[in-house]
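Blinded run. Sample ID left blank on purpose so nobody reads anything into the name before looking at the predicted structure. Input follows.
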Amino acid sequence: MALLTRERDDLQAAATRLRNQLHTLLQQAQPGAPKARLRRRRELDRWCAYQPSSTAPLDQVRAERIRRRACRLASLLEEITALEQQIETAAPAVAAPLQALVGVG
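Blinded prediction complete.
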């Protein structure tokens, strides 16, 4: 159980870092735009397909970085969801012996 929760925590930290990097890139690409939420697959899919309005080389490079980070973040969020499901499945087996102890549960 500790292995699963540690892995989930590590993935959540990585997702936070990616989300922050993506927010920075989006602010550079669209100054003054409202801050994107970047927590749902649908929203991340939108950024995975992002195309800038400009054909300037810097904007194209920035757009590629946005797409890569958005797709990577979407993948991390899927992994986190899968781990959370594994933890929920494993939790009763871990908790049952604890609940049998006097004074616990």
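Unblinding after everyone has recorded impressions. The chain has a mean pLDDT of 90.
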